[in-house]
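User: Please predict the structure of the protein below. I'd like the answer in structure-token form so I can feed it into my own downstream comparison script.

Assistant: Understood. Taking the following sequence of 246 residues as input:
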Amino acid sequence: MASSSDSSSPTPMITRSQTKRNLGPDAVAAARKRHKEARAVAAGSITWNMQGAGTDVIKSDYLVQLMRVAEVDVICLQECGNLFGWQGELQTGWVVAMHEQWNAGGGNNRCSLAILTRTPPTRTHRIANLRLDHRPMISAEYRGRWFWCVHGPRTQTYVRQALLTARHWSPGQEWCVLGDFNVNALHGGETVDIGQPPAQCLKSGRITHPGSGTELDYGYFFEFGFGAILRDEVISDHYAVQFVHP
């Protein structure tokens, strides 16, 4: 584990002059790799409900924009449609870790879910409907943590059920549940009782669904996660929320 002094100081950039004077090529490559990994991990993850962003073509443009402005490793999407049938690696270099096409009443796949990662995940998992006729939960294990993506059914009981499910399927690991829960966020810092230790609710503290004037998009983190930030660079009927974690 890094010392307190190490954790409080950012990894320094390596300049050309420093490279030539002080370090061999292997040491330079290792230092640059550490810096790149620290920079990527520091920004965390994002959840975004894409419905209202427009056609699949427009949604794609907004998604690429989000990938470029938010330096994160994991993006959880709700109501993402067919993602153009994207499989594997996107043009941006991102990977479609999971894409669950879900038809609401048949023939309408706009309520689909997806998880995108910068590099291939270790594993993925799908949990069938927690509630009859409702969307499943999907997850990806990335860098030793499980990221779960949900789109809730407007009931507070679902939140606890989703967290219990995530804990059960992520034994001994850090995990989080991100998404559009369709219920107004708890007050900042509150927890949901799923036993000890609890999962903490991280939210931006701002309206994420302007149409209803409520905060529906947030995350629950188990043993990691520091805060949440509203991202208004991309527009649908929901704003994206970015989570900060090491």
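That's the full token string. The mean pLDDT is 75.
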